[in-house]
Amino acid sequence: MPSEALARVAGGRKLDLDRFLPYRLSVLTNHVSHAIAHRYSVRFGLGVHEWRVMAVLGQNSGLSARELALRTAMDKVQVSRAVTRLVRQKRVQRHPDATDGRITRLCLTSRGHAIYDEVVPMALNLEDAFLAALTPEERVQLDCLVGKLTCQVRLIGAALPLPGRLE
Fold first, then answer.
1. Is the pLDDT of residue 8 over 60?
2. What mean pLDDT is predicted for residues 6-14?
3. 133 three-class SS
4. How far, in whole angstroms, is CA 91 from its chain's centroid?
5. DSSP at 109
6. pLDDT in tens, 24-83
7. Inter-residue contact 138 to 63 (CB < 8 Å)
8. Beta-carbon count within 10 A of 112 CB
9. CB neighbours of 104 closer than 8 A, spacing ≥ 6?
10. Are 52 and 72 in contact (CB under 8 A)?
11. What is the model's pTM?
């Protein structure tokens, strides 16, 4: 579609990526993820996807790969590759589901827990450093606004397949 047609579709507004919220949030998320990843990748050889899997399993042991995909908003392939690497590194282990033999449950190994216990304080310190730019009131407001936007995205996207959602 030519850009003139796009402008008409958007009610005469033009896309300015520097002000387009979805783009800005995506860029911000990538910067934050890479800043945290830089800290743990050198020390533990973890990528962003592996850390996301470990972070979720550190709080929710026994999830399936499908549940991990939903919680991380990663697609099935990303989760599968991350889990495979973590299992090979003996950081995650698989267990058959007690009631459904087709499902495999995942949990951190003792090696995985040790890494998780070291990375969490690093991640929290980095979060504190990011949030230091905000006043306490702005932090509360940001939390509220992110919650509202998350709910709105779920409402808008309820009929659309999201990464990790198996329809």
1. no
2. 66
3. coil
4. 19
5. -
6. 999 998 888 888 888 888 889 898 899 999 999 999 999 999 999 999 989 999 999 999
7. no
8. 22
9. 64, 65, 94, 95, 96, 97
10. yes
11. 0.78
Residues 6+ apart with CB under 8 A from 103: 64, 96, 97
Going through the chain in order, the beta strands assigned E by DSSP cover 92-96, 104-108
- 120 burial via Cβ count (<10 Å: 0-12, 13-18, 19+): middle
Distance, C-alpha 149 to centroid of its chain: 16
Which phi-psi region, left, alpha or beta, contains residue 71 (left: φ > 0; alpha: ψ -120 to 50)?
alpha
- Residue 65 tokens read as 């790969």
E strand or H helix at 24:
helix 21-44
List strand residue ranges (DSSP E) for 12-150, in order.
92-96, 104-108
10 Å CB burial of residue 5 (0-12, 13-18, 19+) is exposed
Contacts 24+ apart (CB under 8 A), 33-39: 35/126, 36/122, 36/123, 36/126, 39/119, 39/122, 39/123, 39/126
Cα–Cα distance for residue pair 38/63, rounded to 1 Å = 27
**Widest CA span of the chain, in angstroms?**
58
